[in-house]
Amino acid sequence: MTWNEHAIARAISLQVLQRKCVLLVPNCSWTGSECDVLGITTDLRVIDIEVKISRADLKADAAKDKWWHWRSYSAREAGGPPQGKRWPNRVWKHYFAVPAELWSDDLLRFLPSPASGVLLLRQNPGSTIPVLVQCARRSTPNRSAERLTPEQVMDVARLANLRMWDAYAQRDRALARQAPAPTPAEVDAL
Question: Which residue range forms the structural domain that includes residue 90?
Answer without folding.
Answer: 5-147
